[in-house]
Task: structure prediction
Amino acid sequence: MPTVDYRMARRALLRDLRSGLRSVADVCDAHPELMRAARFIGEETGEACPICEQPGLRVLFYTYGKELKGRENGRVRRRSDLLELRERFGEFACYVVEVCTSCSWNHLVRSYLSGHKHAV
Ligand SMILES: [Zn+2]
Result:
C-alpha cells in the first residue's frame, strides 16, 4: 500500500521551532472544527504532545477519493470505519493527522492509499 510518511517534515518543523525560526502560534493553529473532531472521535496515541508535553495526543483519519461522494469525501473517520470503507471502495486516500487538544498543535503524520484495489 503506497504510504507517505511525514515524520521528517515534522522533525524539521520542531527543529525550526526550537531554533526560533517559527513561533508556537505558527504551529499550534488547529481549526476549531479539527479540535472538535479530535475531542470527540480522535484516537488516543498514548504519546505526549511535542509542543506542550501534555499527554493525550490524538490522531484523526480523513478520507478522500473519486469514488467517495458528497459528504463521504473529506470526512473524518474512526479507525473502525476504515475497514468498512476498504471493502466498499476500490481506492481512496487516507490522511492521518495528529492533534493536541491542549495547545492546538496539529500535523499530518502519514497518508496512504487504501481500498480493495490495495488489499494486502
Ligand atoms: Zn500540545
In short: The chain has one domain: 3-16+23-118. The two ends are 7 Å apart (CA to CA). The mean pLDDT is 94.
